[in-house]
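Support request, please re-run this one:
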Amino acid sequence: MDATLLADPVARAATYLPVRPVLSRDGRFVAWAEPDYKVIVANLSTGVQARATPLGKADFWPSFSPDGSRLMLVRDGQVVTMAVDGTDIEAVLTGSVRAPEWSPDGQWLVWVDASTEQLEIMRLDGSGRRTIAAPVAGSIYTDPTWSPTGDRLAFVRADYATSETTSGAIIVTNLQTNLSVELPLANGRGAERPTWSPDGRRLAFCVPVGSPLVLRTMIRRQIQLWTVASGAVRSIGDIESSDCSPTWSRISSPETSE
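Re-run finished. Output below.
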């Protein structure tokens, strides 16, 4: 049995400074970054919202620990973690950091070093640091996401020809073998928003439909699905939106053949 994929476009979401909400894995909290660089945390049981960002600070890229007890974000150029209520703040990583993400077991961190444009991972205690993807001229990395079992990383390599044109590739790296594969796109360019199915057997992502020029202004996106076992990519539908964020439900559905 597999999970069902839901098309969840978020019109406000931006590629490199996301404001789209993130849900804690226990379903108790949701957090998002406002356009004025303030992170808000909402308790879904009570509806109470609290600002995690102190006055005079700028926060980005919130994400929750696997058990939902802590929040991680980028604050003034460093990665910090804290209790969901904003207390017990701990600095984890300093430097120019983009798009940090907690591993499923809560032991590792993946991020993009914005000063060198390389993708790195490290244990939260500072050990085991290594580079997953080296810098590529004319490209940046974004949207790193762990597979549910923590043995693979999917991420986007966005390649810029000029300030008006862009294309993107989805890369998946096996952390046990250090082998990477660039997914064959079924249609379009500018791939974005890789999202693993709950069992880690599939990866959903979005590509623009139509001309490769001025991709961020296009209003149609196509959701594509990559299957780990077969390596096949297929299209599963289009949406009328300038952005999309595929989201998997946790409700099982019958298997479908590839």
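Residues 2-253 form a domain with the Neuraminidase fold (CATH 2.120.10.30). Residues 29 and 47 are 9 Å apart (CA to CA).
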